[in-house]
Amino acid sequence: MASFVLPTPANVASNNDSARKSAPQQLNVFQRWYDKFVASQQRRAERNVARYLAETGLKFTDQTERDIEQRLLAPHRFHRN
């Protein structure tokens, strides 16, 4: 003999509660990963700018600022060949 549970307001509410609890937790995991990714990219950009400034004599001129901006918009230009 097969048995099944009819959906009642109590069953539906408990299922919805568990779904609501897991959704923010998943979002929280994604948000933490995204925050770490952004922080990593920020550190990489800062390292690249520091290296570029060291190579150009640590002078921060208008031209240097333009060069850095162009390099950050085209990241492949920072890599040494």
Structure overview:
With 81 residues, the protein is mainly α. The protein has a domain at 29-81. 73% of the residues lie in helices and 0% in strands. It contains 2 helices and no strands. The longest helix has 47 residues, at 9-55. The chain is rod-shaped. The termini are far apart. The relative contact order is 0.07. The mean pLDDT is 76.
Number of strands: 0
Q: Which bin fits the share of residues in helices?
A: over 70%
Main sheet properties: none
List the total number of helices: 2
Along the chain, the helix and strand elements come as HH
Which key terms come to mind for this protein?
rod-shaped; 81 residues
Task: State the gist of this model.
The protein is mainly alpha-helical and 81 residues long. It has 2 helices and no strands.
Furnish the topology, listing elements before pairings.
Layout lengths: L8 H47 L6 H12 L8
